[in-house]
Design a protein that fits this description.
The structure holds two protein chains of two kinds. Chain A is mainly alpha-helical. Chain A folds into two domains: 37 residues, no CATH class; 202 residues, MetI-like (MetI-like fold). In chain A, 79% of the residues lie in helices and 1% in strands. Chain A has a two-stranded antiparallel ribbon with strand order 1-2. In chain A, helix 4 packs antiparallel against helix 9 and helix 9 packs antiparallel against helix 12. The termini of chain A are far apart. By secondary structure, chain B is an alpha+beta fold. In chain B, helix 3 crosses helix 4. The longest helix of chain B is centred in the middle third of the chain and has 18 residues. The chains are: A mainly alpha, B alpha+beta.
Chain lengths: 273, 489
């Protein structure tokens, strides 16, 4: 009897001995968090999307396609995201480029980034108040202004980092080989800044297509985004259709991420011109 | 003769934030020459090269290329190409496109001319065709033995291959002058030797002027037709490698190029010099009687003889002997009348000695190189801060002088009266050890203060170059005289 207990306790001890505090142990709390708040909700979404009236069906997808308004909103969101991204590039690139060439640049970049620490909602509400005081009409114009204002630091920051890190000797080499400043920019500095540009696009385009708060405050009545529609669906307890739309959103994010990473790799490996 | 000179620098100066880096450099370079700028780091050699390339604009002075004033011309208009120290190959282009970069921008005469209304004849320009570019790039790749590497990504190349691509990228543009900024610095020794020889071959074959910057004296001696030795932004000597080696212009050059024994001595009369407390015959004349001078002797110019050999002009005791492959390096000590002090001399000879041996030494009078001393005493302008305190180089030195405050004075301090402190705070002022030269029985250091005055200091200890140290002087050793007023002002 006693020997049996000994064997058992030995086994337990062995088990405990086998347990070592390795580095991976520190990841367990986070993995648990991830499971509870990311993976489980995603599974619920997935189940909800294929369930209607207690049965597995594709009716939610059907409903969404028949209801043309939601798809229209989706296109509109993509368009707004695209325009916002283009504007952010047009404004952000020159700023980042000029700032990275100046010694005082770091401070000014800090000024650009400073608003990022203010809550997005507060900024948006403040912008709204500003437009109201100007008696501006809320619509696509104000919406895009708000989007660009909110997301431009995310464009400038990676661009500034990439451009500042481009070795000065590349420009010198280009100039030495006969390129004037415009050619040097087009053939050397711009191609070398593309990784920063891509990460800027990732940081701006993907969040903009799923935003909803900015459009609610600044979009007026006409400019609803896809994020707003999802919000409305869940508010009206249409969990099935809402889940389908969320899944579409998720797929869009994954697809754009995939495309961007492909393009990025392709660009560094092959030549650009 | 003017057309012979491809590059001319006239009184070129360059300062960054008031700090002079290149001081009044003038030189001319002949077409087809292989010229090397040699000097320790921070001597201004790279800055000079960059001013020729056009990356830096001189603070004053002019740069002429092919007889044309190019001082303010941007780099892309100059007929020169640069090989950078870090290669600066474009990471987003493959080998072919890196080399083709310059060619794609180039325009050439298409064989026709255009005459404007006022009769000036212009060349009609065209871009190079794809085929022309491809042919030139392939030729360039062939020249550097990288035919197979056209499509390769530059990041996949080894250091030596990158170097070759960089050279091909510059040479393919057929520049008048090729500028090379320490191009072999990042390569290992074997590779460096191979590339040295290849560069020399290329120079011979192409007939292009090469302007090479290096801190490696051996590289400079091997490759160049002419060596320009720089220190602290000033040219110390310009000459053929052999001349620079055999007849160094000053103690710095002698110490920097090859190994040398530098000893303090006195010129007793023409053809007679005294050092190590002994008198020797030499071939120099024209010095003042009893002028303090530096004697420079190359270790390989000293022969070791048996102690009782009739030709021996010195006897010495061997303190160490090391085999160096093709010779023995012996350190020998010569007696001094001062108790406990000896003069140490390095000898390169084929004779193997044992530590403690007494040997005779022979030096040809021709091999005693006699040089004026750069400076005999530290002399600097200062101002009396108060009675018994003088302000020089931003520090207040106690002294024995009753001149009133505010008086401009000349201050003299002997080399061996300056005291160096390990801890900067223990000195009256701080400075950086600039150079250290062993002079047989003591070290001569140059301490540069923060106001850029160089203190020459004779000391028994060896100080580490680049270290920050403190300097102080015993009040009784500061010699002060009233500065004569300049009446012209």
């Amino acid at each position: 009897m006693s020997s049996k207990i000994q064997v058992l306790s030995n086994r337990v001890l062995k088990k405990i001995k086998g347990f070592r505090i390795t580095r991976s142990v520190f990841a367990f709390p986070y993995i648990l968090f991830l499971m509870l708040f990311v993976v489980v909700p995603l599974l619920i979404l997935l189940v909800n999307a294929f369930v209607a009236d207690g049965a597995i069906t594709l009716r939610n997808f059907y409903d969404l396609i028949v209801d043309g308004a939601s798809l229209k909103t989706l296109w509109f969101s993509l368009l707004v995201g695209f325009v916002t991204t283009v504007l952010c590039i047009l404004i952000g690139y020159p700023v980042a480029y000029i700032l990275s060439k100046r010694s005082a640049g770091r401070l000014i970049v800090l000024l650009f980034v400073l608003p990022m620490w203010v809550n997005c909602l507060i900024r948006t509400l403040a912008t709204r108040a500003l437009f109201e005081s100007l008696n501006a009409e809320f619509g696509i114009g104000t919406l895009i202004f708000g989007m660009v204002y909110n997301y431009i630091p995310f464009m400038i920051l990676p661009l500034h980092t990439t451009i500042s890190n481009i070795d000065k000797s590349y420009s010198e080499a280009a100039s030495d080989l006969g390129a004037n400043s415009v050619t040097t920019f087009l053939k050397v500095n711009f191609p070398l800044s593309i990784p920063g540009l891509i990460s800027g696009i990732t940081m701006v385009f993907i969040p903009t297509i799923s935003t909803f708060a900015i459009s609610q405050f600044l979009g007026g009545t006409s400019s609803h985004l896809f994020g707003d529609s999802i919000n409305t669906k869940f508010e009206h307890q249409l969990y099935g259709v809402g889940s389908v739309m969320s899944l579409i959103m998720l797929v869009l994010v994954l697809v754009s991420n995939f495309i961007i990473s492909k393009v990025n790799k392709g660009e560094t490996a092959d030549n650009l011109w | 003769m003017m057309e012979d000179r491809i590059i001319e620098l006239k009184n070129v100066c360059k300062s960054y934030d008031e700090k002079p880096v290149v001081k009044n450099v003038s030189l001319s370079i002949k077409k087809g020459e292989f010229v090397t700028f040699l000097g320790p780091s921070g001597c201004g050699k790279t800055t000079t090269l960059r001013m020729i390339a056009g990356f830096e604009k001189p603070s004053s002075g002019e740069v002429y290329i092919n007889g044309k004033d190019m001082t303010k011309a941007p780099p892309y208009t100059r007929p020169v190409n640069t090989v950078f120290q870090n290669y600066a190959l474009f990471p987003h282009l493959n080998v072919f496109n890196n080399i083709a970069f310059g060619l794609k921008l180039k325009t050439v005469n298409d064989g026709t001319y255009f005459t404007s209304k006022n009769g000036v004849k212009y060349e009609n320009m065209r871009k190079l065709t794809k085929d022309e570019i491809a042919t030139k790039v392939r030729d360039a790749l062939k020249m550097v033995d990288l035919e197979e590497y056209e499509k390769r990504n530059v990041s996949s190349l080894s250091g030596g291959q990158k170097q070759r691509v960089a050279i091909a990228r510059s040479l393919v543009n057929e520049p008048d002058v090729l500028l090379l900024d320490e191009p072999l610095g990042a390569l290992d020794l074997k590779m460096r030797k191979d590339m040295q020889i290849e560069l020399m071959h290329m120079h011979k074959r192409l007939g292009i002027t090469f302007l090479y910057v290096t801190h490696d004296q051996e590289e400079a001696l091997t490759m160049s037709d002419t060596i320009v030795i720089m220190k602290d932004g000033v040219i110390q000597q310009i000459g053929a490698p052999q001349k620079v080696y055999d007849e160094p212009a000053n103690a710095f050059v002698a110490d920097f190029i090859g190994e040398s024994n530098i000893l303090s001595g006195i010129m007793l009369a023409d053809y007679t010099v005294s050092f190590c407390e002994r008198v020797f015959e030499c071939v120099d004349k024209g010095f003042k009687t009893n002028e303090p001078i530096d004697v420079i002797i190359r270790p390989e110019d000293i022969k070791i003889l048996p102690r009782d050999d009739n030709n021996a002009i010195l006897t010495a005791r061997v303190s160490s002997c090391v085999f160096k492959g093709d010779h023995f390096q012996s350190a020998v000590l010569i007696d001094s009348s001062i108790e406990g002090e000896e003069y140490e001399i390095l000898v390169h000879d084929n004779t193997e000695c044992k530590s403690g041996d007494i040997v005779g030494l022979y030096i040809k009078p021709f091999d005693l190189h006699i040089m004026h001393k750069a400076r005999l005493i530290n002399e600097i302008e200062g101002e009396m801060w108060d009675v018994n305190v003088v302000e020089i180089c931003g520090g207040k030195f106690p002294c024995l002088c009753d001149l009133p405050s505010g008086e401009r004075v000349n201050v003299k301090i002997d080399f061996d009266d300056v005291i160096i402190h390990d801890n900067e705070d223990n000195g009256t002022i701080g400075g950086v050890v600039g150079s250290v030269i062993y002079k047989g029985n003591y070290y001569q250091c140059v301490i540069r203060t923060d106001s850029y005055f160089d203190f020459f200091v004779d000391t028994e200890d060896e100080w580490l170059k680049g270290d920050r140290v403190g300097i102080s002087v015993d009040p009784k050793n500061i010699i002060i005289s009233v500065k004569k007023e300049d009446f012209n002002e």
